[in-house]
């Protein structure tokens, strides 16, 4: 028998808003705020990301979630410097596309798919 829990959605306002340049930084940290968060969406505003809509398991304290999220924003997100990526090296070689190494390993029996997105391999001494 499986147990189901109700979920609730809360919108947590951010003041100051998070700049759009930091949206990815914020998104990578939301699930770390609380284990009760099941889903979230960043809510844009004119000034950036003005709120986060979180879906949480029933029983989660919205005030505590807001406090924790705002702490993460203030201490982990807003302080991030955004540097423009730069090319430090570029190869000049051109040629045919690289061969499918994983396919070669599968054909030789040196690797196998252990599930969607997972693989395993072993040296001859391990088989």
Give an overview in words.
Helices cover 28% and strands 31% of the residues. The chain is α+β, with helices and mostly antiparallel strands and 127 residues long. Helix 1 crosses helix 2 (62-77).
Helices and strands, with pairings:
Elements: E1 7-18, H1 23-33, E2 37-45, E3 48-57, H2 62-77, H3 101-108, E4 111-115, E5 118-121
Antiparallel strand pairs: 1-3, 2-3, 4-5
Helix pairs in contact: 1-2
| Topology order in helix (H) and strand (E) letters | EHEEHHEE
- Strand arrangement, major sheet: 1-3-2
User: What is the general shape?
Assistant: flat
First and last CA, distance: 40 Å
Radius of gyration: 23 Å
Residue fraction in strands: 25-35%
- The helix content, as a percent range, equals 25-40%
User: Structural class, please?
Assistant: alpha+beta
In total, the number of strands is 5
Low-confidence parts: none
Largest sheet: 3 strands, antiparallel
Mean pLDDT: 85
Number of helices: 3
């Amino acid at each position: 028998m499986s147990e189901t829990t109700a979920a609730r959605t809360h919108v947590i306002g951010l003041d100051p808003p998070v700049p759009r340049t930091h949206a990815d930084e914020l998104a990578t940290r939301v699930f770390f705020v609380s284990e009760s968060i099941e889903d979230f969406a960043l809510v844009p505003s004119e000034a950036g990301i003005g709120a986060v809509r979180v879906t949480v398991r029933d029983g989660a304290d919205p005030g505590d979630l807001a406090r924790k999220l705002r702490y993460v924003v203030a201490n982990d997100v807003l302080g991030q410097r955004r540097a423009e990526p730069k090319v430090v090296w570029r190869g000049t070689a051109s040629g045919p596309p690289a061969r499918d190494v994983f396919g070669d390993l599968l054909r030789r029996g040196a690797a196998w798919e252990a599930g969607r997105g997972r693989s395993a391999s072993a040296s001859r001494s391990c088989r």
